[in-house]
Amino acid sequence: MTGVFVADVQLRWTDLDAQGHVNNVMVADYLQQARAEFMLSGDAGEMIEDGLVVVAHQISYRNPIHYSDDPLRAELWVAEVGAARLVIAYRLIQDDSLCVEARTVLCPYDFERMVPRRLTRRERGFFTAWLDENTAPLPELVAPELAGRGKITPVQVRWSDPDRYQHVNNVRYLDYVLAGRVDMTSHADPSMARVAMGNADAARWLIARQDIDYLVQMMFRLEPFHVLTAPVHLGTSSIVLATEIVDPDDGIVHAKARTVLVCADEAGHKRPLPDAARAALEKLLTTQ
Protein backbone atom coordinates (compact mmCIF):
# COMPACT_ATOMS: atom_id res chain seq x y z
CA MET A 1 0.00 0.00 0.00
CA THR A 2 1.29 3.46 -0.95
CA GLY A 3 -0.26 5.04 2.16
CA VAL A 4 -3.22 7.37 2.48
CA PHE A 5 -4.01 10.03 -0.08
CA VAL A 6 -4.54 13.42 1.54
CA ALA A 7 -6.80 16.11 0.11
CA ASP A 8 -7.47 19.53 1.63
CA VAL A 9 -11.16 20.35 1.31
CA GLN A 10 -12.12 24.00 1.58
CA LEU A 11 -15.08 24.80 3.84
CA ARG A 12 -17.77 27.27 2.81
CA TRP A 13 -19.97 29.36 5.08
CA THR A 14 -23.00 28.03 3.22
CA ASP A 15 -22.08 24.47 4.29
CA LEU A 16 -23.42 25.20 7.79
CA ASP A 17 -26.96 24.40 8.92
CA ALA A 18 -29.21 26.04 11.52
CA GLN A 19 -27.39 24.24 14.33
CA GLY A 20 -24.14 26.02 13.48
CA HIS A 21 -22.12 23.06 12.21
CA VAL A 22 -21.60 21.54 8.76
CA ASN A 23 -24.77 19.86 7.53
CA ASN A 24 -24.66 16.07 7.22
CA VAL A 25 -25.36 16.20 3.47
CA MET A 26 -22.32 18.40 2.88
CA VAL A 27 -20.12 15.65 4.31
CA ALA A 28 -20.96 13.51 1.28
CA ASP A 29 -19.95 16.44 -0.91
CA TYR A 30 -16.58 16.60 0.87
CA LEU A 31 -16.11 12.88 0.23
CA GLN A 32 -16.89 13.44 -3.44
CA GLN A 33 -14.46 16.35 -3.70
CA ALA A 34 -11.64 14.36 -2.10
CA ARG A 35 -12.45 11.29 -4.20
CA ALA A 36 -12.31 13.29 -7.44
CA GLU A 37 -8.94 14.79 -6.49
CA PHE A 38 -7.65 11.32 -5.62
CA MET A 39 -8.72 9.77 -8.93
CA LEU A 40 -7.52 12.69 -11.03
CA SER A 41 -4.07 12.36 -9.44
CA GLY A 42 -3.32 9.17 -11.41
CA ASP A 43 -4.52 6.60 -13.91
CA ALA A 44 -8.14 6.69 -12.72
CA GLY A 45 -8.76 10.20 -14.02
CA GLU A 46 -10.31 8.99 -17.26
CA MET A 47 -12.85 7.03 -15.26
CA ILE A 48 -14.35 10.31 -14.05
CA GLU A 49 -14.42 11.61 -17.61
CA ASP A 50 -15.92 8.47 -19.15
CA GLY A 51 -18.31 7.29 -16.47
CA LEU A 52 -18.42 6.33 -12.83
CA VAL A 53 -21.39 5.67 -10.57
CA VAL A 54 -21.71 5.60 -6.81
CA VAL A 55 -23.40 2.37 -5.72
CA ALA A 56 -23.53 3.01 -1.96
CA HIS A 57 -22.30 5.16 0.91
CA GLN A 58 -21.75 4.33 4.56
CA ILE A 59 -21.08 7.46 6.61
CA SER A 60 -20.34 7.46 10.33
CA TYR A 61 -20.44 10.91 11.94
CA ARG A 62 -18.10 11.01 14.96
CA ASN A 63 -17.77 14.72 15.74
CA PRO A 64 -19.33 17.86 14.26
CA ILE A 65 -17.39 19.83 11.67
CA HIS A 66 -17.31 23.58 12.32
CA TYR A 67 -16.55 26.42 9.96
CA SER A 68 -12.89 27.32 9.68
CA ASP A 69 -10.65 29.19 7.28
CA ASP A 70 -8.38 26.16 7.46
CA PRO A 71 -9.27 23.31 5.09
CA LEU A 72 -10.63 19.99 6.25
CA ARG A 73 -8.12 17.14 6.02
CA ALA A 74 -9.51 14.23 4.00
CA GLU A 75 -7.58 10.96 4.12
CA LEU A 76 -8.61 8.23 1.72
CA TRP A 77 -7.44 4.89 0.46
CA VAL A 78 -8.83 1.79 -1.23
CA ALA A 79 -10.46 -0.88 0.93
CA GLU A 80 -11.46 -3.36 -1.81
CA VAL A 81 -10.82 -3.88 -5.52
CA GLY A 82 -13.01 -6.23 -7.55
CA ALA A 83 -13.47 -6.93 -11.25
CA ALA A 84 -16.01 -4.15 -11.76
CA ARG A 85 -16.28 -2.43 -8.38
CA LEU A 86 -14.14 -0.91 -5.67
CA VAL A 87 -14.56 0.48 -2.17
CA ILE A 88 -13.00 3.77 -1.08
CA ALA A 89 -12.40 4.39 2.64
CA TYR A 90 -12.15 7.85 4.18
CA ARG A 91 -11.37 9.78 7.32
CA LEU A 92 -12.29 13.46 7.65
CA ILE A 93 -10.21 15.24 10.27
CA GLN A 94 -10.47 18.73 11.75
CA ASP A 95 -8.03 20.04 14.37
CA ASP A 96 -6.66 16.51 14.89
CA SER A 97 -10.17 15.24 15.71
CA LEU A 98 -11.73 12.41 13.71
CA CYS A 99 -15.04 13.81 12.49
CA VAL A 100 -16.17 11.28 9.89
CA GLU A 101 -15.35 7.74 8.85
CA ALA A 102 -16.90 6.55 5.60
CA ARG A 103 -16.97 3.99 2.80
CA THR A 104 -18.10 4.40 -0.81
CA VAL A 105 -18.79 1.60 -3.28
CA LEU A 106 -18.01 2.66 -6.86
CA CYS A 107 -18.59 1.06 -10.24
CA PRO A 108 -17.08 2.11 -13.59
CA TYR A 109 -19.90 2.64 -16.05
CA ASP A 110 -20.28 2.84 -19.82
CA PHE A 111 -22.87 5.57 -20.33
CA GLU A 112 -23.03 5.02 -24.09
CA ARG A 113 -24.22 1.43 -23.64
CA MET A 114 -25.73 2.12 -20.18
CA VAL A 115 -24.01 -0.88 -18.58
CA PRO A 116 -21.33 -1.38 -15.91
CA ARG A 117 -17.85 -2.21 -17.21
CA ARG A 118 -14.76 -3.90 -15.82
CA LEU A 119 -11.77 -2.00 -14.50
CA THR A 120 -8.98 -1.59 -17.04
CA ARG A 121 -5.49 -2.85 -16.23
CA ARG A 122 -4.25 0.71 -15.66
CA GLU A 123 -7.15 1.53 -13.37
CA ARG A 124 -6.69 -1.66 -11.39
CA GLY A 125 -2.98 -0.92 -11.01
CA PHE A 126 -3.71 2.57 -9.69
CA PHE A 127 -6.26 1.41 -7.13
CA THR A 128 -4.21 -1.60 -6.03
CA ALA A 129 -1.31 0.71 -5.17
CA TRP A 130 -3.57 2.39 -2.59
CA LEU A 131 -5.17 -0.84 -1.35
CA ASP A 132 -5.24 -1.74 2.35
CA GLU A 133 -6.82 -5.18 2.58
CA ASN A 134 -6.89 -4.94 6.38
CA THR A 135 -9.40 -2.09 6.37
CA ALA A 136 -12.15 -3.03 8.81
CA PRO A 137 -15.67 -2.80 7.35
CA LEU A 138 -18.22 -0.54 9.00
CA PRO A 139 -21.07 -2.45 10.68
CA GLU A 140 -24.11 -2.96 8.48
CA LEU A 141 -27.12 -0.77 9.23
CA VAL A 142 -30.19 -2.79 8.26
CA ALA A 143 -33.84 -1.86 7.92
CA PRO A 144 -36.97 -3.55 6.54
CA GLU A 145 -38.33 -2.64 3.12
CA LEU A 146 -41.02 0.00 3.40
CA ALA A 147 -43.06 -1.34 0.48
CA GLY A 148 -45.15 1.80 0.26
CA ARG A 149 -45.27 2.44 4.01
CA GLY A 150 -44.08 5.59 5.75
CA LYS A 151 -44.87 9.27 5.47
CA ILE A 152 -44.77 10.56 1.90
CA THR A 153 -42.84 13.76 1.22
CA PRO A 154 -42.99 15.04 -2.38
CA VAL A 155 -39.53 16.28 -3.43
CA GLN A 156 -38.83 18.26 -6.57
CA VAL A 157 -35.59 17.78 -8.49
CA ARG A 158 -33.91 21.13 -9.02
CA TRP A 159 -32.32 22.12 -12.32
CA SER A 160 -28.93 22.23 -10.59
CA ASP A 161 -29.21 18.73 -9.08
CA PRO A 162 -27.93 16.70 -12.10
CA ASP A 163 -24.16 16.41 -12.56
CA ARG A 164 -21.96 16.14 -15.65
CA TYR A 165 -23.43 12.70 -16.42
CA GLN A 166 -26.90 14.30 -16.68
CA HIS A 167 -28.38 12.31 -13.80
CA VAL A 168 -29.01 13.49 -10.24
CA ASN A 169 -25.72 13.59 -8.33
CA ASN A 170 -25.31 11.13 -5.47
CA VAL A 171 -25.03 13.93 -2.90
CA ARG A 172 -28.40 15.36 -3.84
CA TYR A 173 -30.15 12.07 -2.99
CA LEU A 174 -29.15 12.74 0.61
CA ASP A 175 -30.83 16.15 0.34
CA TYR A 176 -34.05 14.33 -0.51
CA VAL A 177 -33.54 11.90 2.37
CA LEU A 178 -33.04 14.86 4.71
CA ALA A 179 -36.21 16.53 3.46
CA GLY A 180 -38.22 13.39 4.13
CA ARG A 181 -36.63 12.87 7.55
CA VAL A 182 -37.35 16.40 8.78
CA ASP A 183 -40.88 16.32 7.37
CA MET A 184 -41.76 12.97 8.93
CA THR A 185 -40.28 13.58 12.38
CA SER A 186 -41.46 17.16 12.81
CA HIS A 187 -45.00 16.16 11.84
CA ALA A 188 -44.90 13.10 14.12
CA ASP A 189 -44.58 15.33 17.19
CA PRO A 190 -43.92 19.07 17.79
CA SER A 191 -41.02 18.20 20.12
CA MET A 192 -39.10 17.06 17.04
CA ALA A 193 -39.30 20.42 15.29
CA ARG A 194 -35.83 21.60 14.33
CA VAL A 195 -33.98 24.73 15.31
CA ALA A 196 -35.14 27.63 13.06
CA MET A 197 -38.61 26.08 12.65
CA GLY A 198 -40.16 28.46 15.19
CA ASN A 199 -39.73 26.14 18.19
CA ALA A 200 -37.56 27.93 20.76
CA ASP A 201 -37.37 24.80 22.93
CA ALA A 202 -36.34 22.49 20.09
CA ALA A 203 -33.97 19.68 21.00
CA ARG A 204 -30.86 19.15 18.91
CA TRP A 205 -31.10 16.25 16.48
CA LEU A 206 -27.76 14.91 15.27
CA ILE A 207 -26.94 12.34 12.60
CA ALA A 208 -24.71 9.56 13.94
CA ARG A 209 -24.81 7.29 10.90
CA GLN A 210 -26.22 7.42 7.39
CA ASP A 211 -26.14 4.68 4.75
CA ILE A 212 -27.63 4.83 1.27
CA ASP A 213 -27.89 2.38 -1.62
CA TYR A 214 -28.34 3.86 -5.11
CA LEU A 215 -30.59 1.57 -7.14
CA VAL A 216 -31.80 3.50 -10.21
CA GLN A 217 -30.55 6.77 -11.68
CA MET A 218 -32.79 9.82 -11.33
CA MET A 219 -33.15 12.42 -14.07
CA PHE A 220 -34.40 15.98 -13.98
CA ARG A 221 -38.15 16.35 -14.38
CA LEU A 222 -40.88 18.71 -13.21
CA GLU A 223 -42.99 16.08 -11.46
CA PRO A 224 -41.84 15.40 -7.87
CA PHE A 225 -40.56 12.08 -6.60
CA HIS A 226 -41.89 10.66 -3.35
CA VAL A 227 -39.66 10.20 -0.31
CA LEU A 228 -41.09 7.62 2.10
CA THR A 229 -39.76 7.75 5.67
CA ALA A 230 -40.58 5.60 8.70
CA PRO A 231 -39.01 4.83 12.09
CA VAL A 232 -37.81 1.22 12.31
CA HIS A 233 -36.10 1.18 15.72
CA LEU A 234 -36.21 3.30 18.89
CA GLY A 235 -33.37 3.42 21.42
CA THR A 236 -32.99 5.40 24.61
CA SER A 237 -31.76 8.51 22.81
CA SER A 238 -31.72 7.43 19.17
CA ILE A 239 -34.02 6.60 16.28
CA VAL A 240 -33.27 4.48 13.22
CA LEU A 241 -35.19 5.70 10.18
CA ALA A 242 -35.68 3.94 6.86
CA THR A 243 -36.14 5.97 3.70
CA GLU A 244 -37.03 5.08 0.12
CA ILE A 245 -37.05 7.46 -2.84
CA VAL A 246 -39.82 6.31 -5.17
CA ASP A 247 -41.25 7.31 -8.54
CA PRO A 248 -44.99 7.57 -7.79
CA ASP A 249 -45.88 6.93 -11.44
CA ASP A 250 -44.39 3.44 -11.72
CA GLY A 251 -43.39 2.52 -8.16
CA ILE A 252 -39.68 2.19 -9.01
CA VAL A 253 -37.47 2.62 -5.94
CA HIS A 254 -34.47 4.78 -6.86
CA ALA A 255 -32.65 4.63 -3.52
CA LYS A 256 -32.90 3.18 -0.02
CA ALA A 257 -31.36 4.84 3.03
CA ARG A 258 -30.95 4.14 6.74
CA THR A 259 -30.25 6.91 9.24
CA VAL A 260 -29.43 6.92 12.95
CA LEU A 261 -30.80 10.12 14.48
CA VAL A 262 -29.69 11.07 18.00
CA CYS A 263 -31.41 13.46 20.39
CA ALA A 264 -28.95 15.84 22.06
CA ASP A 265 -28.87 18.83 24.39
CA GLU A 266 -27.46 22.24 23.50
CA ALA A 267 -23.95 21.04 24.35
CA GLY A 268 -24.27 18.15 21.92
CA HIS A 269 -24.52 15.45 24.59
CA LYS A 270 -27.00 12.62 24.16
CA ARG A 271 -30.27 12.96 26.03
CA PRO A 272 -33.31 10.67 26.21
CA LEU A 273 -35.94 11.01 23.53
CA PRO A 274 -38.76 13.33 24.62
CA ASP A 275 -41.66 11.28 25.98
CA ALA A 276 -44.09 12.80 23.49
CA ALA A 277 -41.78 11.99 20.58
CA ARG A 278 -41.32 8.41 21.73
CA ALA A 279 -45.07 7.88 22.09
CA ALA A 280 -45.73 9.33 18.63
CA LEU A 281 -42.96 7.34 16.94
CA GLU A 282 -44.02 4.06 18.56
CA LYS A 283 -47.33 4.37 16.73
CA LEU A 284 -45.47 4.75 13.42
CA LEU A 285 -42.87 2.03 14.03
CA THR A 286 -42.28 -0.22 11.01
CA THR A 287 -40.41 -3.37 11.99
CA GLN A 288 -41.03 -5.92 9.23
UniProtKB/TrEMBL annotation:
Signal peptide range in chain numbering: none
SUPFAM superfamilies for the chain: Thioesterase/thiol ester dehydrase-isomerase (SSF54637)
Gene3D superfamilies: Hotdog Thioesterase
GO molecular function terms listed in the Swiss-Prot or TrEMBL record: fatty acyl-CoA hydrolase activity
Coiled coil (UniProt feature): none
One family name in Pfam for this protein: 4HBT_2
Protein name as catalogued: Acyl-CoA thioesterase
